[in-house]
């Protein structure tokens, strides 16, 4: 049941020490499960891009698929999944990026976009910005024009949004939380 007095912030559940000690995990499943909250979050993400400013929405696996799919639908834009390596069936382009321990790779289909298409990138949260920066690199590699990168949550102390802005990307987030 939707409680209209609850803000988006109230609808996000925080789980301390998950998946490891010291991390405050910002769980958006409680927001997604609330009909009014989910709609409000998507409406707020979509708002600046209504009226044909985007050709495609790219969502980052996995929570970026849920939000990005809804945003794409509302913008009447196509949706492009950006996935962890090895999950996409056709020819891909890929980028590797550094994690706290080690390295990871993300991929998208090489024919998911044509050069010059305008793309809004969507994920649930930006922390250090490693994932989103890699996604921007991937999209630019195949000639996409990044309209903006949008997140429900920013953790500004981790500097990810600043890093993306320094790369020339417009960054929007609906809520920010202190700390990690
Ligand atoms: P980063 O690459 O450091 O910006 O991390 C962003 C990705 O990791 C996003 O896909 C988030 O879903 C996930 N993530 C990082 N930190 C958190 C956190 N504190 N709570 C929930 N998800 C997180």
Provide a quick synopsis of the model.
The chain is of the alpha/beta class and 180 residues long. It has a domain at 53-176: Rossmann fold (3-Layer(aba) Sandwich). The protein contains 6 helices and 9 strands, in the order αββααβαββββαβαβ.
Q: How many whole angstroms does the radius of gyration measure? A: 16 Å
Q: Note poorly predicted spans.
A: none
CATH class of the domain at 53-176: Alpha Beta
The average pLDDT score comes to 96
Structure classification: alpha/beta
Specify the overall morphology: globular
Number of helices: 6
Number of extended strands: 9
What is the end-to-end distance? 30 Å
CATH topology of the domain at 53-176: Rossmann fold
Q: Could you give the order of strands across the largest sheet?
A: 5-6-4-3-7-8-9
Q: Give the topology string: H per helix, E per strand.
A: HEEHHEHEEEEHEHE
Tell me roughly what share of residues is in helical segments.
25-40%
Bound molecules: adenosine monophosphate
β-sheet strand percentage: 25-35%
Q: Please state the second-level CATH architecture of the domain at 53-176.
A: 3-Layer(aba) Sandwich
Reported for the largest beta sheet, the result is: 7 strands, mixed
